[in-house]
Every structure is written in C-alpha cells, then in structure tokens.
C-alpha cells in the first residue's frame, strides 16, 4: 500500500484537491447505503424488535403471573384462617356440650342408683317382714301346742279337746303377741 | 513493510505525506472506469454489516446469546440512546432503520483505517460522507415538510420562537443559512476532515518513523524515529476513539435535526 502510494507520488507529483468529491463515489455511497438500509430494515431490525417485544411480554407476563399467584395464596390463607377459626369455635361448642352431657349423665346415674338402692332396701324390708310373719305364725302354732302340752303335764290331765281351754290358750298367745310387738 | 523499505532504499528521499496520498490508483478497470480501493471497501462494508448483523439478529431469542447480545447492544444504543432521546418516543421508530444504517455504515468505513491490509478510512474521501449528509438533509427536511407543510416547516426552521419586528430581517436569513443550507456541509466536512487528518497523521508518523530509523544519517534520527513510531501507535489508539465518535456524532446530529424538524415549538 505504502509502496503504491509512493509510486503514485513519484509518478504524479501534482497535488489533488481532497475537497472535490468524485461523482462515482457519491453514487456508490448512495447505492451501498441504500442496500444496507434495505437489508437491515428487512432482516435485522424486525428480529431485534421481535426479541425486545417478546422479552417485554415475558417480563410483564411474569410479573402478572406472580401477582396472581400472590393473590391466590392470600385467598387460600384467608380461607384456611377462616376454617381454622370455625373449627376452633366448633370444638369449643362440642366441649361445652360434652361437659353438659356428662353432668346430666352423672345426675341421671345418681338418681337411678338411688332409686335402685331404695328399691333393694324396700324389697329387703318386705322380705324380712314376710319371713318374720311366717316365723311368727309358725311359732304361734307351735308355741300353742307346746304350752298346752306343758300345762297338761303340769295339771295332769288332757285339756286338748276342751273348748274353753282352747280359748284361754288363744287369749294367752294374743297377749304374748301384743307383748312381743 | 519490506516492499516499502525497498522503495525507500531505492529513493532514499524523505517522505512527504499529503493529500496526494489519498489519491489511490485504480485497483482494476471495468472498461474506462477505474475501481479504487475505497470503492471496494465501501462495497465490502455492505457484506460486513449485513452479514454480521443478520447473524447476530437471527436467533431473536428472549434470552440472547453472546452474539445477539452484542448486536442488541449496538442496536439499543442507536435506537434508545440516540433516536428515542432526540426524536421522542412518539415518532422515533420510523427513523431507527435510517439512523442505524448511518451509524454502522460510518463506523465500519471509519474502522477500515485501522485494520491491517485494509488500512484506509473510506470516509476520508469526501464523496462518501457527502452522500450520507445529502440523505440526512433530505430526510430531516422531508420529515418536517410532511408534518408541517412547506411554508409551515420553513417558518418553523427559520423564525425563532418569541421574536418579532425588524430583528427578523436579520435572524431569518441566518437561521435559514444555519438550519437549512449549512447542515449537510458541516456534516460532510466534520466527518471527512477528521478521517482525512487522522489518516494523514498516521501516514506521517509511521513513514517518518521508519525513514528516520532506517535511512537517515542524522545523529538525532534514532531518538526522533523512536518517538515518531511510538506516536504512530498512540495516534492509532486515539483514532479508535475518534472513529467511533465521528460515527456517533453523525448519527446523533442527524437524529437531532430530525427531532428539531418534527418538534412542536422551539
């Protein structure tokens, strides 16, 4: 390059004015510029703009998605809190009810037991009374005959079929009964 | 470099870089028409830009790979950093392809100046920046006229807000000159001149350095040659920055002109 320049300088020593434009250079410049402009506009800029637009959309979409997710999460949290509060309330109510029911059951059982006890006691009384009456009746007969026998032995004669004596014995037993009672 | 050295050895004259160094001979001829290196470089930029960016943009993935990320960085810089800032979010998308093309076209053609073997910023030939500057002029004036009508746009660009009376006789021609006539010229000259001067500096210090180190008999030639060579490297780094800045400035100014033409009030 330098050689050619020097050779040129040696061959054509006259100075050229660099401020005078050459028409072919202007024309070439315009043509090349136009071609570059056209090709960049058709091939390059749409691709860059597409990437920009998609990137913007992706970022905005991401933000929107995140906001939606946050909203959803908050709604779920609220719902759970509400449910939890409801459950707590319900549990308290159940506990209260159970307490009441327990008290009621205890009272009922107590009443039942008392009634049973009373029933058992009265049955026992009745039984004892009946047995006593039975024993008393039995004794009444036996004591009569034994006393008559005893009196016969003491008197020395049989008093068995004497009606008057029988009345005396009965009266005696009635007296005995009264004193026993 | 060896070829250059033999050339020096043969001539052994101190190099004198100048505008003639930008007037390269035709690489080959098509009929009478000589095809020069900057022409080839400009055509090459078409393949570099479109090839590179269509590769980077093709995945169009939501999660970009490295290539797509790099492409989006550049595209986002022009789209959001330049176009939207200066034109406003309502109307900027229409102009993004145009501004993106300017940025890449100027950037790649500037960076040629530092690539080994290519080593020539095509924008240092005034015809190339002039073409883009004319396009920008058409675009911003066209956008303004389309929005406000011819006279409405002319008034918008030439009558400063809040001014009344005879002062307008002075202001209107000045505003017309600066806002309508001179803008394409300043756009062209700014880009052309920085690329031209930068490349000239690189030629000066690299040729000067090698001449001083290899062919001069002067006793100061060695240190001077070393400094010159180091400067050539330092200026290369500076050029990286300038090449980017010029592409940025050209795009930025184009978008500012469009934004101004579309603005509701001054």
From TrEMBL, chain A:
One term of GO molecular function: proton-transporting ATP synthase activity, rotational mechanism
SUPFAM superfamilies according to UniProt: F1F0 ATP synthase subunit B, membrane domain
Sorted UniProt keywords: ATP synthesis, Cell membrane, CF(0), Coiled coil, Hydrogen ion transport, Ion transport, Membrane, Transmembrane, Transmembrane helix, Transport
Coiled coil: 63-97
Record field: transmembrane: 26-45
Cellular compartments annotated: Cell membrane
Membrane topology, from the record: Single-pass membrane protein
CDD domains, A to Z: ATP-synt_Fo_b
GO cellular component: plasma membrane; proton-transporting ATP synthase complex
InterPro entries: ATP_synth_B-like_membr_sf, ATP_synth_b/b'su_bac/chlpt, ATP_synth_F0_bsu_bac, ATP_synthase_B_chain
One protein family per Pfam: ATP-synt_B
Highest taxon in the source lineage: Bacteria
Similarity comment: family membership: Belongs to the ATPase B chain family.
Oligomer and partners: F-type ATPases have 2 components, F(1) - the catalytic core - and F(0) - the membrane proton channel. F(1) has five subunits: alpha(3), beta(3), gamma(1), delta(1), epsilon(1). F(0) has three main subunits: a(1), b(2) and c(10-14). The alpha and beta chains form an alternating ring which encloses part of the gamma chain. F(1) is attached to F(0) by a central stalk formed by the gamma and epsilon chains, while a peripheral stalk is formed by the delta and b chains.
HAMAP family: ATP_synth_b_bprime
Function: Component of the F(0) channel, it forms part of the peripheral stalk, linking F(1) to F(0). F(1)F(0) ATP synthase produces ATP from ADP in the presence of a proton or sodium gradient. F-type ATPases consist of two structural domains, F(1) containing the extramembraneous catalytic core and F(0) containing the membrane proton channel, linked together by a central stalk and a peripheral stalk. During catalysis, ATP synthesis in the catalytic domain of F(1) is coupled via a rotary mechanism of the central stalk subunits to proton translocation.
Name of the protein in question: ATP synthase subunit b
Lineage of producing organism: Bacteria, Bacillati, Actinomycetota, Actinomycetes, Propionibacteriales
Gene: atpF
From TrEMBL, chain B:
Pfam families: ATP-synt_A
Major subcellular location class: membrane
Molecular function, one GO term: proton-transporting ATP synthase activity, rotational mechanism
Intracellular or extracellular location(s): Cell membrane; Membrane
GO cellular component: plasma membrane; proton-transporting ATP synthase complex
InterPro entries: ATP_synth_F0_asu (IPR000568), ATP_synth_F0_asu_bact/mt (IPR045083), F0_ATP_A_sf (IPR035908)
Bilayer topology annotation: Multi-pass membrane protein
Transmembrane segments: 36-57, 95-114, 126-145, 166-185, 191-214, 226-249
Source organism superkingdom: Bacteria
Claim: Transmembrane helix is one of the keywords in the record: yes
Keywords: ATP synthesis, Cell membrane, CF(0), Hydrogen ion transport, Ion transport, Membrane, Transmembrane, Transmembrane helix, Transport
Similarity field: Belongs to the ATPase A chain family.
Functional description taken from the UniProt entry: Key component of the proton channel; it plays a direct role in the translocation of protons across the membrane.
Protein name: ATP synthase subunit a
Gene: atpB
